[in-house]
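It is worth pausing here to work through a concrete case rather than discussing structure prediction in the abstract. The textbook approach is simple: state the sequence, then state the predicted structure, then interpret. We follow exactly that order.
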Amino acid sequence: MADGKGRLLLLKLGNGADPEVFENTAGIKTRNLSINNSLVDATVPDSDDPGSIVYSSSVHGIQSVSFSGSGLSDDSATSTQLNAACLEQTRTNAKVIVPGLGEYAGVILIESIEFSGEVEGEAEFSISVKFTGKVTFTAE
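Step two, the predicted structure:
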């Protein structure tokens, strides 16, 4: 993977138009993309020698792709779109750009949005989204 700047790891939201335009989410300072593959135990003892050592065997189960981030709360169109998608529990087309690697695209559901702030600080937020259905990857 090429050396990339963390600020270039981007969550882009689709506007639902035809053709669809994807816009960067504003304010996110810390970002994380997670790809998980659950493993299913497929271990079968040797039927010819049931007393022998049983070796663990696994196969892939469910794959999940999620994105989380946190940063400064703002009044951008994408922040409004994320808030509405969370409150209305709607699906949103999205892309996550990983610098030096490529782009993950699919439909997301907002798992959570949290807002916080200190008396003398900026209003902050954190978000957690999960891709639902097939996620496509396009290499750079």
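Step three, interpretation. DSSP finds one helix and seven strands in the chain. The CA atoms of residues 25 and 85 lie 13 Å apart.
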